[in-house]
Amino acid sequence: MELSDVMRTTGAVRRFTDDPVPDEVLERILDNARFAPTGGNRQGTHVIVIRDRETRKALADLSVTGARRYTAQVKNGEFPWNPVKPMKVTAEEVAATEAGPYLPFVYCGAVLVVCVDLNVCAAFDQHLDRIGLIAGASVYPFVWNILLAARDEGYGGVLATVTVAEEPRAKDLLGIPEDYAIAALLPIGKPVKQVRKLTRKPVAEIATRERFDGEPFRA
Question: Which residues in the chain come in under a pLDDT of 70?
Fold first, then answer.
């Protein structure tokens, strides 16, 4: 596929057929994705390829904690899990909210758990009075490359993070060292329906000239 076509049609895939994802396909996906840039070219990423159904079900079950809060906040008209505005629903309301496990982990061909070594991340924003984001530059280009490479192979996936609300338990389950963080869990499989067109805001709505409040950027 042309690069622009891959970029414009790599949507979030959560429903998969029963088609397998062969090891050789996953290896090609990771072989291409590994050329993503990382801070200082330190390449501190590690991928756990999970096919075992019981392990995938356990990861899905660990997603319920994050999903309960997400669902409760959405029902209350909030933007869930945002780091700026305090949660308005109570812990009791969250606990009483019904939320199921993240089933794409169970019904995909494989789950790729992408970890990053925090020892090699340059987190320039670590002392700012806000949630840290910059360390993600050392892992998320690689994560997105995986999804682009999967699309190019005729497969799909989605960048899932809901299980990270239970990261300590997930790390125990998978034997992840203390100094590593889970950046993403990617269910990969053959899409039930392949997206051909995505809807996104036009450039003039997301880009401005010279300042945040500058004129909309247009050619």
Answer: none
Residue 135: the pLDDT is 95
Tell me the three state secondary structure of residue 111.
strand
User: H-helix or E-strand containing 173?
Assistant: helix 167-174
* Sign, CA torsion 196/198/202/207: negative
Distance CA 151, CA 141 (A): 15
On whether residue 141 sits in a domain, the answer given is yes
Q: How many CB atoms lie within 10 A of CB 22?
A: 12
Number of structural domains the chain divides into: 1
What pTM was computed for the model?
0.95
Q: Are 156 and 191 in contact (CB under 8 A)?
A: yes
- Tell me which residue range forms the domain holding 69: 3-205
**Does residue 15 sit within a domain?**
yes
CA distance 143 to 12: 13
Quick check: 9 and 151 in contact, CB under 8 A?
yes
Tell me which DSSP letter residue 162 carries: G
Rounded CA separation 172/113 (Å): 13
- What CATH code is carried by the domain that includes residue 11? 3.40.109.10
Record the tokens describing residue 46, joined without a space: 């590690």
pLDDT, position 124: 96
